[in-house]
Protein 1
Amino acid sequence: MFGDDGHQGFFVEGPFGAFGTQSVHYVCKQSFHGQALYHRGMARRFSGYNGETVCRGRCAGRVQDAKEDCVDVAFARKLCALNSGFYRMQAKSFSGTRHAAWPGWRRCMDEVTAAGCLSGPDGVIVDVACGNLRFEQFAAQTLPHCRLVCHAVDDCDELALDQGILHDGAPEVRFCHLDVVGALLDGALDLRGCCGFTQGASEGHGADLAVAFGFAHHIPGAGNRTRFLDALMDTVRPGGFAAVSLWCFMRDEGLAQRARATHTQACGELGFDPAAFEAGDYLLGWNNAPGAWRYCHSFDDAEIEGLAASVATRARLAARFAADGRTGDLNEYLVFQVR
């Protein structure tokens, strides 16, 4: 167990009561079957449930399993709207800082091709939160032998639609407008359908590689992030790969100090209650632009291990490594081979 500051936390347990329950005061974080609870308060552990709790804090006593969130859905929608507005308003300046491939992408592609994936004349890639299509260009340059079809998914058309790669046919890019976080919050995320995979993955219909780089930190709620990883894997054929990057900006003390400062300022400007956020959640600024706030989550090791464990029955963890940023460790990558 790890607390908000990275130190270990603990439970102080009470006696078992009626109906096989045990009262638990918890401090810092506790993980149940790979999913962390991020708020403090009173919990009640059910001896008859497999890793379930009833929360006496913000979850108002409802049963919470490993894929449920304590984040308020209405508040999560506000964070989603904040980010959508940020990327629409800052599309040009943001895209201007996003040209080169990240070092972590190269290692991901090395892992995938070393296993014989994308080694043939044709390949299918799904890129969720494609932004300005940098990964599509990187994939085409890295795999010149392969005729690629790239399904690029994003809800910020401004970032993608003015890119020449959409029109030159190398690779073939099929853009799908989708508010992924909004669909998650609605319980209606269908990435397979968005990409036009109408037949089942078990028949080999699906992507050779599905990626989500620079996106998971925009998904509010641990359970939503787990559900997203499930949905990403749904797009992949058996034997194919899925890869995600997880931003760990609080590893860097300079970034951490700025995150704490901008979070306090943004909460004041937006009227957000700081207690509504989960641990690791911050509102970050952009280029000192007034009102340019976006929601981001910084992952810690316990969360990353929990995400990997949540899909262990359907995928093999082929690689986990840190890369990117000035320190070379600001993103943690998980690369899975789907069973």
Note: The radius of gyration is 20 Å.
Protein 2
Amino acid sequence: MTRLLSSAACVLVLACFACSSKSSHSTTDGSGSGSAVACTGDGDCGPQDPYCDTSSHTCVECITSTNCGNNRKCDTTNNTCVQCLADTDCGGMTPYCSPVGECVECTTMANCGAMMTCNTNDYRCVATCTANTGCRAPTPVCNTTMMYCVQCLASTDCMGTLGGGTVCDTTNDTCVECLMDSDCKTAERPKCNTTNDFCVQCLTNADCTAPATCSPEGVCR
């Protein structure tokens, strides 16, 4: 009887260990939702991030450049496919590799001609300015620090702009509709979708009155 109880206890312990081990290697449905997906092999990953980085046990876009198509390279610092890793990967009208791994016209003022500077928002050579009088629509404001014309430096610069934006996104000096919910002034569209800086009716199902749900376009249906 004692031997039977001992055997049963061993079986129970082993079963609990197996359950614990299985839960420590959990995976998601592989939908590539943007959150880190735990993995032990490529089979645990979805189409958006199809490769398993076994050093971090997360699904990523690439491990080596052979995982990237269209002659793109694998940036192994963040395991994403990019157009370039160095200037030698670029040529023609876009001979320089930007910090985000795309071939561009310039990355510094030295890459541009006389009376020109590099707009590091889009890495293009543009005319220099020292005051707003040297600028015109759709970029009527002079960023005197960077010495090029921009759409705005403050939200007051956005009033009456062609795009209709009323808030200045100072990360790239452009006028947008919103940066936060408080920028959305109508009851019909009270939420700010910070992916595209537009006001929408909803961001999640919780913003809608049941049984309506939030559509990908940000509308309760």
Note: The longest helix spans residues 2-23.
